[in-house]
Every structure is written in C-alpha cells, then in structure tokens.
Amino acid sequence: MSETTNPGTANGPTSIRSVFKGDRFGRDSGLFWAAVALLALAGGLIGDSYVLHIFILVFIWCVVIASWDLILGYAGIFNYAQLVFFAFGAYTAAMLSIYADTTPLLSIAIAGLSGAVVGVLVALPTLRLKGEYIALYTFAIHLALPPIIQQGRSIGMGGNTGLLGIPRVELFGTTLSTIDKQAWFWLALAFGSVCVYAVYFLILRRRAGLAFIAMRDVDAFAQAIGVNAVRYKLAAFMISAFFTAIAGGLYAHYTAVVTPKILGTEFFLMAMVMLAIGGMGRFPGAIIGVFVVVIGNELLRAFDDYRLLLLGIAVVLVVIFLPRGIAGAFLGQGGSRSR
Amino acid sequence: MSQTIEILIGGLSQGAVYCLIAVGLSLVYGASRILNFAHGSLYSLGGYIAWALVVGYFNLPLWLAVVIAIPLLFATGVGIERLVIRPLRSWGNWRINTIMATLGLAFIIENTLQLVFGPGTKSIPAFIEGTVTLGTITISSYKLWMFVISLALVGALEFFLARTRYGQAVRAVSQDIQGAKQVGVDVNQVFAFTFGLSVVLAGLAGILLAPIFLISPVGGWGPFLKAFVIVVLGGLGSTKGAFVAAFVLAILEGFVIFYIGPNWVMPAWLLVLIVVLAVRPKGLFGVWES
Amino acid sequence: MLEVERINVFYGDFHVLHDVSLSVAEGEMVAVIGANGHGKSTLLKTICGLMPARSGAIAFRGREIAGRSPPALIGEGLVYVAEDRRLFPDMTVLENLQLGAFRPEARRHEKRNLERVFELYPRLAERRGQLCRTLSGGESQMVALGRGLMSNPTLLAIDEPSLGLAPNLTAQMLETIATLNEDGLTILIVEQSIAQLEGLIDRTFAIEEGVLRESAPVDGSPA
C-alpha cells in the first residue's frame, strides 16, 4: 500500500529459508510418515464409525487445503475457485462411473487429469490479471458454477438433486461401500497422505516451491532471476486443480452422492476457516487447520442454527488475532509487521 | 422498435441501481485497496433495516425509515473498518487477510439476518404504483423514480469527489497514500469515511430494489456479484468506470433476458468481462497501480 | 526552532538512526549530507511525524512533538517535501496545490500562498489545469515544493530536491529554496552531496550509517 519495500524483501529470504531446509528434508519426511503411520494405527483402534467418518472427511479436506495452500499461501495467487476444481472432480468422476461404467479408481484418476486441464483453463485469463482482479475473477467462476450445473441437467448432471447412486470403489477384489468406514479410513488416509506429501515435500521443497515463493514475495525480483512467471502460474493452477479434483472424485465415491451443495456457503466457509486458522504458506499450518476445523465443526453440530454464524465469526477473529494462523503464532519466526 | 426502447429504458433504470452498488465497492477499493466481500450482505442489511422499520415492527413511512437507516448504515461501515479492517493493515499479508475477513463478515451478517428475520423473503411496498406512458412506450413509475434517485445519489457522490476539499482528499488517498499523509490528510479517517459511505450506498440500493427483487438473507450475493463484475469491468477504484460499466451491463442484461432468458445473464456478463480483461487487464478505466 | 535530542529509529529490527541530535534555529537553512541508505530521509520523516522514533525527544517551537500525527504537525507549520515528490498523478496541478492547504490552519492562507507559488513558478500557473502524471521531472518538483508551501510552513523539510533533476534544474531549484529562506522560511534540506549547496546554507551536518555529526562551518573550503 505504502512503501513497504523493506518488509517485502526482508520477508522473502526468511520465508524461503524456513521452507528450504534441505538438510532437514529427510527428517521432516520421516516425521510426516510417522504421523501417517500413527493415524493408520489409530484407524484400527477406533471402532466408532462416526469418528471414522470425521477422519475420512479430514483426510479428503487435507488434499483440498494443501492444494489451495500451494496456490494461495505459497504462490500468492488469489485463487478462490478451489472448490470449482473440487466440484469438477466430483462430478467428472461420478459421471464417468455412473454413465461410462469406468472403474471408480480410474474415474478418479481421469477426474484428476481433466481437473488439471480445467485448472489451466481457469488460469489462462489470470495471466494478465493482478492481485484482487484474480480474486474477483476466480470467485465469480465459483459463484457462476451452481447455475451452470443446474442447466446441465440435460447432460445428466442431476440439477439440484445431484447425482445419486455413484458406484462403489473396488479394491483388491472387495467393494467398499460408504458403510465400510474402516477400509475407507485407510483408503482416504493413503490418498490424503500421498497427495499432501507430494504437495508439501515433492513440489514445494523443490525448485518449483522456491519459484512460487519468489513470485509471491518479490515478483519483479523473481522475474529478474529468470523465474518464468507464466509457466509457474499455470503450473500452480494445474497442480492445485489436479490434486483437488482427485479429492473431489474420492469424496463423490465415498459419499455416493454429489450435489451442487459442495459449492455452497458452508463448504467454502469451512475451507477458508481451515486456511485462516492454520495459517497460509507455512506447512503444517493448513493441515492442522483442517483437523481443528473439521473436528470443531462436528462439535458444533449441537448448535446447528448458529454453526455458520460461528464459523464466520471464527474466520474474522482468527484473521484479526492470529493474522498468521496457528502456524504463524506457534511455529513461525516471529511476526513480520510491516510499517 | 418500442420493444427495444422499453428494454433500453428498463436497462437504464436497472443500471442506475447497479451503479449505486458498484460505486461504493469501487470507492472503498480506490481509497483503501480493500475489496469488500461483505458488500452484498450490507446491501441486504439495508433492505432489512427498512423492512423492519416500515413493514415488520414500526409502520414508519418509508422516507423516515431511510432517514434512520442512513446513519445506521454509515455507523456499521465505520465500525467494520475500525474493528475488522484496521487491525489487519499493519501486517504484511493484509491483502489476503482482508479478503478472508470480509468474506467471513459476509457470512456473519448473512447468518445473523437469517437468525433474526428467518430464511424467507421480505418485501417493502413500492412508494409509487402505476405506469408512465410516453407514446407507445410504457414503463413503471417506480422504475422511473428508481432511476432518478439512483442517478441523483451517484451524481452527488461524483460532485463530492470532484468539487469538495474532502472529496479531493479521498481521491488523494487513492492516488498516493504517502502523499496524502504529507499534506495532512488523516488517512485512517478517510478509510473509515469511505467505508461508511459505501455501506450507505449499498444499503440504499437494497432499499430501492426491495420492492422488485425482494429481500432475503443471501439475496445480496447476486447484486454483489454483479457489482463486482461492473467494478472489474470499469476498472477497480474508478468510480467513472463503474458508472459506465453499470449501464453497459444492465442494458446487456435487459436484452439477454428478453431474447435468451434470465439464466444467461451471468454467463453473458462474465463473457464480456473476460473479453474486456483480455484486452484491458485493468478494466475500462482502471489506471491506478496499487 | 527545532530541537532533536538523541533519537533512535528502527525499521523493523534494523537500527537506522543512532542517538541523533540536531538543532535548527529560526531563519536558518541547514543541510544534512549523506549517501543513500544512511538515514537522511528517515531523519526527516521522523521529524515530520511520518515515522516513529523509539526513543529520544523532538521539540518544535519549544513544544514536544514526538509521537504527534502528521496532520497536527502540519498545523504547527512543520512540513515535509518528499524526495519522490508524492504528487497525486490523476489530479491537476491546481488540485495538488490546493491539497497542500488541506489543513484548516493552512486553508486560512490558501489564497495568499497560491499567489506566492504562482509568482515563484509562473509555469505552474500556466499548467494549473494539467494532470500531474503528464508533467516533466522539473515541473513535478516545482509542484512538490509548491504544495509544501501551500501548507503554510514555518519549517520546510525538503528531501533531496535534486533527485532526478538535471544539474542546471537542480541549481535553479536550490536558488529558489535559498530565496525562500531569505524571505524568512526556516529550511532543513537533505542532499547526497554538498557541491551545489555551497554558499547557500548556514550549517551542515553529515550523516553516516545513522550517526549524525556537525561539519565544520561552511566557508568555501571543501567539506
């Protein structure tokens, strides 16, 4: 806004260092997989199917939020069309499984790939846009999608009622119905951990991650050192949309139902709260955010009338009092107030 | 022929109200670089305040309700700026955080309205009934008044920005904050003032459109989405751009509804938006670098 | 008129000014000379309330002013002209000048000050209706200085007026500033080199890595 050049450049190197602890890559990977193993073990011990269900949702959300964090938190692109990718993946996978008789796992894979294509298509107009213009444009796409889905009734998108009776996933010769919570728990955990690992470790800790952060913090500098902004913007959208669409496909096959509700206020709000509470651009903030919010949201079920209101209040309060999220407050290297 | 003219006139009257919603959004962005995602819910809030005063609880005449609503809306805007936006400004990531906060705020207002007034729609009776006939053309008197009132309000805003010293200060802040501070403009006061003003404009639009579009807790998203297509098309921060874009898009809307159907309005708007942004990434009149 | 007592200023964790003390008497023209990045602008901005000092005291006309807001300081007559001009690009020359008189204290003298500025720079009178984004560097600097005068200053703090100007334009600009000083305006000016200021100023301070020292009196000998 004013001349905040100093914080920008001062911020840059520190953030980059915090992500690029190349020497700690192995240690952090080990910690990550140990946490996943613990969760997998826990899955065997939890008998309550409701609790399992909540964890399945957590794992699916983790993929969406990690992908969103990649583009919003790390690459600094104000993309608000994340749930569009999710809905696209859910619908594509569901329709392939229902109408084309594709094996569900293949449907999900195809949904991921076509999601990547949609990501690029959404990204193309943003190449010429800056900052808030991107926020407006992408959120407009989000808001414009539900009416289009309703128009899509004629091509089998089910309109307002959505798609019902999505075929079950088959794995190693057994079919997993929505009630097989334990199996779904492990499947979702496997999917989720692989995707999250890919986003935070394989992508963001490599050259691409450095380029994203450089683009976010000092755009001109990034271009000066030869970061091809166009390529990395497209890549950010593509990767982000790919994983999110996979999560959508998985979600569709888990719940066996897809409705335009996944583009509704509640989902969008939830996703935002997760990012805000966890803290953007600082792993594992966003992932912690997912656990806190999904579980917190379930605890709020008792106050259903006030739940959305409380979520809204949570976003505002968290942004005001923990501007860098849980990760920023407890794991970050102090605040970097500008001005 | 007269069909076309009726659509044009309908579009002009609609455009004037869209303009009212959009200029407020643009004004705030111009002065403080805040994109207020709660703008639509504040539009709904205006409608509900008037409904509560006129229909729901008090049976006041509409003009009195408007007189009461204006300071309430202004105070709401100033309060939001002070309590929610201002604390975020001192942080490096304020741009993303203000988007988050105003989106959260939108959901707070929307859900509060739903809890207080229920999910159903409400309506305020039009203050004038009947139609005006000019030759072969017939338009509703209310729409004519809506056009006049909106245009007068937007005109007053333009006059304020162009001709008064405080209006100059608002423009100064939008063009160079540091420079504005140096000449002694209280920048925080301008931020709060413009926010309050934009909420008043949005709320008045909500009241004006209540007899036509009805009031509902989530009813603000439609006008908001339209306002921001207008603002982006016109160029963020340019009130003149918002003015032109509002009429262009409203007339387009009239023709699309008549010839294709109401469901195609938003796709048509977005198409225009994407085409314009492809040619001019900062909209029609957007020139300021943030 | 201006007394700065051991101020310390930080930018984040970076210590910019170290125990800087400085005084300017009424009617003086004082220069602070230093290279880029040594804290010259920070010093001016701190004095004018645009940046906070972490410790130390600043008194203007006998009153403590540290921590007061820029609008209040302008009302007192302490006015800052920025090195990067900070004009409002999409407003006319006249509007920019009028905004200089935004504070009520300055508004009272607006008419007289505007006449004075146009007298000083007839070129600005000719271009009063032109948008500032279309002005040349020299004209922009005239508007910046003019806008500062419109605030009805008793002390004008000018930050590197020569920045981006050709040497002959710089010389004219500094002449004008010296004339203003002769007419009674107290001036605190910041520059990178003393060369073009010689003979115009009363006293010089040198700033290096945030430490300020008064230089030997200017008597024609090289600084």
Short summary:
Helix content of chain A is 72%, strand content 2%.
What does this structure look like?
The complex is a heterotrimer of chains A (339), B (290) and C (223). Chain A is mainly alpha-helical and 339 residues long. Chain A folds into 2 domains: 12-263, no CATH class; 265-332, no CATH class. Chain A is 72% helix and 2% strand. Chain A has helices at 5-19, 25-45, 49-74, 82-99, 104-126, 131-151, 181-203, 207-217, 219-224, 229-255, 265-278, 285-299, 304-321, 325-331; strands spanning 169-171, 174-176. A two-stranded antiparallel ribbon of chain A has the order 1-2. In chain A, helix 11 (265-278) packs parallel to helix 13. The longest helix of chain A has 27 residues, at 229-255. Chain B is mainly α and 290 residues long. Chain B has a domain at 21-217. Chain B is 74% helix and 3% strand. A two-stranded antiparallel sheet of chain B has the order 1-2. The termini of chain B are far apart. The mean pLDDT of chain B is 88. Chain C is an alpha/beta fold and 223 residues long. Chain C has a single domain (2-214), classed as P-loop containing nucleotide triphosphate hydrolases (Rossmann fold). In chain C, the strands form 2 sheets. Chain C has a 6-stranded mixed β-sheet with strand order 6-7-8-3-9-10, with helices on both faces. A 4-stranded antiparallel β-sheet of chain C has the order 2-1-4-5, with helices on one face. Chains in contact: A-B, A-C, B-C.
Determine and state the CATH class of chain C: Alpha Beta
- In helices, the fraction of residues of chain B equals over 70%
Distance between the termini of chain C: 25 Å
- From the spread of the alpha carbons, the general shape of chain C counts as globular
In round numbers, the mean pLDDT of chain C is 89
Question: Structural class from helices and strands of chain B?
Answer: mainly alpha
What order do the helices and strands of chain C follow?
A: EEEHEEHEHHHHHEHEEE
Query: What's the number of extended β-strand segments of chain C?
Result: 10
Name the strands of the widest sheet of chain C in spatial order. 6-7-8-3-9-10
Structural class of the helix and strand makeup of chain C?
alpha/beta
What gyration radius of chain B follows from the Cα positions, in whole Å? Answer: 19 Å
Nearest-integer average pLDDT of chain B: 88
Identify the biggest protein-protein contact and residues per side.
A-B, 54 and 50 residues
Strand order of the biggest β-sheet of chain B: 1-2
First CA to last CA of chain B: what distance? Answer: 45 Å
